[in-house]
Amino acid sequence: MTEDDLKSLRRHHNATIGLFFAFWIYFLIVIVVINFFPPSNTTHDNLIGTMFGAAIVLCLLQFKKCCPDCGANLGLQRRLGIPKKCAKCGVILKK
Question: Cα separations (Å) of 27 from 51, 59, 73?
């Protein structure tokens, strides 16, 4: 595996973790806004829609990356972001 592959995996891992935390902060803000400052129906629907849209984008991002050596999907390997090694071929993905 090349150094560029490792950098790409590291960037993907950091983006996934950062967006995961950003999503939960957004989720909590939406819940607080809906409960304490009742918005109009249109605003309520937009808030809920963007929340579900963001969740779908995060799921797609999590399951997008594959192992550079064997092509196994890394999103299915029991953790958020990139695992330390590929469960299928055993190649080290993080150093």
Answer: 7, 15, 27
